[in-house]
Automatic annotation (TrEMBL):
Source organism superkingdom: Eukaryota
Protein name (Swiss-Prot/TrEMBL): Putative reverse transcriptase domain-containing protein
Matching InterPro entries: DNA/RNA_pol_sf, Peptidase_aspartic_dom_sf, RTL1-rel
Any GO molecular function: RNA-directed DNA polymerase activity
Species: Tanacetum cinerariifolium (Dalmatian daisy)
Keywords of this entry: Nucleotidyltransferase, RNA-directed DNA polymerase, Transferase
Pfam families, A to Z: RVP_2
Amino acid sequence: GSFDVIIGMDWLSYHRAVIDCYKNVVCIPLPNGEILEVQGERPEKDPRSLACIKADEKKLDDIWVVQDFPEVFPDDLSGLPPMREIEFRIDLILGALPVVKSSYRLAPSEMLELSSQLKELQEKGFI
């Protein structure tokens, strides 16, 4: 059997893991000094067992953006955000349709010149 594991970059960085894409392996130094090698598909040697551990729960105070802007992140996130005054809005008109108009109007001679310039650039491989 097989299984997939998703590990965040913060966790890998905190544990000083090394990702070797060429060998398809992740090396994680363990507290006892040994190195745990997690092999990708088709391991070259017998894979070792992995133990499942529960990570510490991340707190808002651990995130540097929250530390820099505490007034933006309330302590209590138990419900919806409070009602706030709307600073900007666009009133929609019932039944209104998008404007159907050419963005740039060119005279027939200008259109012909533009077309020939584009064709020349295309032939030269610029477009």
